[in-house]
């Protein structure tokens, strides 16, 4: 990047003669750890930055578009620095810098200039007239991968490292950031402790078995096989010869002791014996090396793996969070989770983020209240703090996005039992579902969306699901057929939240684990929470990317996470 001399810090010039006659102009804050002024601090003011005219600032950003005008006498640039949805208009004279270099999309610049009021009738309330180009990182228009034309999301998925430079993905990134920040604000303000649960686990929370395995056995096996090719293992003859050497050295030491030889002679002989034993041990160890994964009783011997047992990438931090909730009261975990589901749909990722709160001394009703309050809080937060980005979603993605947020933020959620939901769906006559509706099925997305978008036109909480379609840790209801589970269904995505009151009764949860074919010994630590001071508790899981789909109206989950992982793709 080309550099010139360091500029003076941004200043606000004011004549002493008019100090008492004119109002003090607003102060522009610098970026905290940079010598530039964020574009958001200019354009996000109520007056669009008009009151800042006359101030000298340093701006840094990337050229979205550039065009020469006045027969090459000057150029207008649309500059973004990612701090807001809007671009700052910049005017550069040809006398200040070579316009043929600075106008190209993707070019980075650091500019010293003066904020000016543009001519009347223009869209902008303020623009920057450049006095000096401090730094410039050129972008060759002949090879720059993002043309000025409107780009499809599919096209951008093949250019993950550059897609944040587009209007849409940068807006999604700010929305994602605000939702993550709002999540922490909500739970911290309600007395929840933020908990970091492990990414590597030895338990399957869901019991589905679709987990990524963590192992070093393959790497170790490859090393052994390479070593055996380069340095073949010793033969039986080599080992027998080494044993004879040990025997000979041992007899030599014995004889020296019998002959009452000097200490020096005995010590030297013992050293030779020790070396012979070490050589034999190494030979015997190498003789054990065999190609392929280590086996025991015909199965892979995981006792030789890194953790001395099978380990996986977590599908959920819930079980671990329960152990802390049963000591600290209310906790939440918020981090990446993984599922090795070979799905190519627009709703599934192999790596995704989950929010999972857990509360002690709380039941299913408390769980539903928490989920409803959280979803309403983050919806209102976007309306309050991300409205420009949401307006961009309305313009380019989903015209109903803002209205949907407003409705969810202000409307009490409907609550119905699973049995009632099934009955209502069976009575539907204006739509034929692809998946047959009957008691005992796991509601499909089409059913969930019909309930929230058509029947009730608002979020719906369905609770008391059949036990056979839910996990072992959900509390068995008195009817013996259903569990105290609940799902929050919202327009656009269907299920957003899945939660339950956890089974706190020791004998009941033991039977549930066995009935589902899971090994009791794996969950001994989890059962301890029921053996010692068991307590009524509950919690839920929320797929963070689904929350972003709900908020933005974007259709494909791969477009709301910075670096999507799915079957066949793990770029960057």
UniProtKB/TrEMBL annotation:
**Pfam families per UniProt:** tRNA-synt_2, tRNA_anti-codon
Q: Which reaction does it catalyse?
A: tRNA(Asn) + L-asparagine + ATP = L-asparaginyl-tRNA(Asn) + AMP + diphosphate + H(+)
Going by the entry's taxonomy, the superkingdom of the source organism is recorded as Eukaryota
Please list the residue ranges that the record marks as compositionally biased, kind Pro residues: 1-11
Which residues belong to any copy of the Aminoacyl-transfer RNA synthetases class-II family profile domain? 331-562
What's its EC? Answer: 6.1.1.22
Q: Name one GO biological process term.
A: asparaginyl-tRNA aminoacylation
GO molecular function list: asparagine-tRNA ligase activity; ATP binding; nucleic acid binding
Q: Which GO terms describe its cellular component?
A: mitochondrion
Q: Which InterPro entries match?
A: Aa-tRNA-synt_II, aa-tRNA-synth_II, aa-tRNA-synth_II/BPL/LPL, Asn-tRNA-ligase, Asp/Asn-tRNA-synth_IIb, NA-bd_OB-fold, NA-bd_OB_tRNA, uS15_NS1_RNA-bd_sf
* SUPFAM superfamilies with a match to the protein in the record: Class II aaRS and biotin synthetases, Nucleic acid-binding proteins, S15/NS1 RNA-binding domain
- Where do the segments described as Disordered lie? 1-26
Q: Does the keyword Transmembrane apply?
A: no
Which keywords label this protein? Aminoacyl-tRNA synthetase, ATP-binding, Ligase, Nucleotide-binding, Protein biosynthesis
Enzyme class, first EC level, given as a word: ligase
Coiled-coil positions are none
Query: Does the UniProt entry include the keyword Aminoacyl-tRNA synthetase?
Result: yes
**WHEP-TRS domain location:** 238-294
Output the CDD domains linked to this UniProt entry.
AsxRS_core, EcAsnRS_like_N, WHEPGMRS_RNA
List the HAMAP family: Asn_tRNA_synth
Show the NCBIfam families listed in the entry: asnS, PRK03932.1
What family is this? Belongs to the class-II aminoacyl-tRNA synthetase family.
Q: What is this protein's name?
A: asparagine--tRNA ligase
Tell me the gene name: LOC110796428
């Amino acid at each position: 990047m080309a550099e010139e001399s360091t500029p003076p810090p941004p200043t606000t010039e004011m004549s002493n003669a008019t100090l008492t006659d004119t109002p003090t102009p607003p102060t522009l804050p610098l970026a905290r750890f940079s010598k530039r002024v964020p574009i958001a601090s200019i354009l996000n003011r109520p007056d669009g930055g008009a009151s800042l005219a006359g101030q000298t600032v340093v701006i840094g950003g990337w050229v979205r578009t550039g065009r020469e005008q006045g027969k090459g006498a000057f150029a207008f640039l649309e500059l973004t620095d990612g701090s807001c949805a809007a671009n700052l208009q910049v005017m550069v004279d040809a006398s200040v810098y070579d316009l043929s270099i600075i106008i190209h999309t993707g070019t980075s610049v650091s500019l010293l200039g003066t904020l000016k009021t543009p001519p009347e009738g223009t869209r902008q309330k303020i623009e920057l007239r450049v006095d000096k180009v401090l730094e410039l990182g050129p972008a060759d228009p002949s090879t720059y991968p993002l043309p000025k034309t409107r780009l499809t999301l599919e096209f951008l998925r093949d250019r993950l490292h550059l897609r944040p430079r587009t209007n849409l993905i940068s807006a999604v990134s700010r929305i994602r950031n605000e939702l993550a920040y709002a999540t922490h604000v909500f739970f911290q303000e309600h007395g929840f402790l933020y908990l970091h649960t492990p990414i590597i686990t030895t338990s399957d929370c869901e019991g589905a078995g679709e987990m990524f395995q963590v192992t070093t056995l393959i790497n170790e096996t490859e090393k052994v096989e390479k070593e055996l090719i380069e340095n073949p293992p010793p033969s039986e003859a080599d080992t027998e010869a080494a044993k004879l050497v040990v025997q000979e050295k041992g007899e030599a030491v014995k004889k020296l002791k019998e002959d009452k030889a000097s200490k020096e002679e005995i010590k030297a002989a013992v050293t030779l014996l020790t070396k012979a034993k070490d050589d034999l041990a190494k030979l015997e160890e190498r003789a054990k090396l065999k190609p392929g994964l280590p086996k025991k009783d015909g199965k892979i011997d995981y006792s030789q793996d890194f953790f001395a047992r099978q380990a996986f990438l977590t599908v959920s931090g819930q079980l671990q969070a329960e152990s802390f909730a049963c000591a600290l009261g209310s906790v939440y975990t918020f981090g990446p989770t993984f599922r090795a589901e070979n799905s190519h749909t627009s709703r599934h990722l192999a790596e995704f983020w989950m929010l999972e709160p857990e509360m002690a001394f709380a039941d299913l009703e408390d769980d539903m209240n928490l989920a409803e309050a959280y979803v309403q809080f983050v919806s209102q937060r976007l309306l309050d703090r991300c409205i420009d980005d949401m307006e961009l979603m309305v313009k380019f993605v989903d015209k109903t996005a803002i209205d949907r947020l407003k409705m969810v933020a202000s409307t009490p959620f409907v609550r119905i039992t699973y049995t009632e939901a099934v009955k209502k769906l069976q009575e539907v006559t204006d739509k034929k579902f692809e998946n047959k509706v009957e008691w005992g099925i796991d509601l499909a997305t089409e059913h969930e969306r019909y309930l929230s978008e058509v029947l009730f036109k608002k979020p719906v909480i369905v609770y008391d699901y059949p036990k056979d379609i839910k996990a072992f840790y959900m509390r068995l209801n008195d009817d013996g057929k259903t569990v105290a589970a609940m799902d929050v269904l919202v327009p656009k995505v269907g299920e957003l939240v899945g939660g339950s009151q956890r089974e706190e009764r020791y004998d009941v949860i033991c039977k549930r684990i066995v009935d589902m074919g899971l090994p009791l010994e794996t969950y001994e630590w989890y059962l301890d929470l029921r053996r010692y001071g068991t307590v009524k508790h509950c919690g839920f899981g929320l797929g963070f990317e689904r929350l972003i789909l709900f908020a933005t109206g974007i259709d494909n989950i791969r477009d709301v996470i910075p670096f999507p992982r799915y079957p066949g793709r793990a770029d960057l």
